[in-house]
């Protein structure tokens, strides 16, 4: 097995991949197909290229395919390492198929600072477009190999990749359901509107919030029980729906996410990790009652600027405990009924309960939310600070269930502002 460097640009490799001769392919049978990178990881690759940050090499297998009319060797290439970077990220980006994530920081290039968040390739400044299409990764070409040697090399490259809890959850979902979930996460709500830090985005907390919302909808419609909605619990939930999240349920969550895409075009400071799963359930109730997206957004903004002590208490320490999640659902539901003038007894509730659903209950200084301090969540400020912008300096701990389930420590090895490490493919 021999190795050599290959001086080739992104644009050239794209032409190879799209050519009729398929000079570049990505069809190795042993590669892991665990779904596309999240929008933030794709976006941070582009940021890293523009910022000239370190990016691991691309590794190609090089094979002789024959000779041309002049007797010159013709070579073909297989992507061994770099599938996500090239095939699912950069080539589609150059074709304007996706926009950079809304949380991507400005990038400095040759002394000038550019705001690139939310932009497609064609919307970037011309000098930035040139950097991307002409970018040259360190490309290693492997020749004279056996397939056994190539497979061993592939797994050696990827064996040290550290995954967050939600990245591990992708494998639990299975390829088909993960592709569906990736489609949901690629819309405007999860890429531009939710208010998460870059660190949270790199951990794929957007996937966690979506899974939490899906779980709470199952609680509502199927009376499924959860002790909490921690990342560990959502891993178990992901595994449980792998072969049972049927077409009807997929259609329901797709309708909800489409509705949220229409409701929130830009970043909304209230759409934080503590609140998004609750809003997912409330949007389902809004759809059932024919509330237009712009009116639902108006309600959420009104709720964010009001003071609800019971919601505040349920958003503190232990906010992932199901008692506190239910308390937040109840408060927002009653507030929504009051906002739209609905008869609360005639509206489908967010969960089954024999307790009273009254306005007085949610505006009282004394809430029934569990005050257990055992479980914590990443950002649990008082209600008054929900409308403040989170900072990267804020403590960001992984959801932990300390009441019996195995707590799983998650290691984040992504570099600052780049999120680019040896990819898991």
UniProtKB/TrEMBL annotation:
Residues 390-415 have a biased composition (Acidic residues). Residues 26-173 form the GmrSD restriction endonucleases N-terminal domain. InterPro entries: GmrSD_N. Residues 364-425 are annotated as: Disordered. It comes from the Bacteria. PANTHER family: CHROMOSOME 16, WHOLE GENOME SHOTGUN SEQUENCE (PTHR39639), DUF262 DOMAIN-CONTAINING PROTEIN (PTHR39639:SF1). This is GmrSD restriction endonucleases N-terminal domain-containing protein. The lineage of its organism: Bacteria, Bacillati, Bacillota, Clostridia, Lachnospirales.
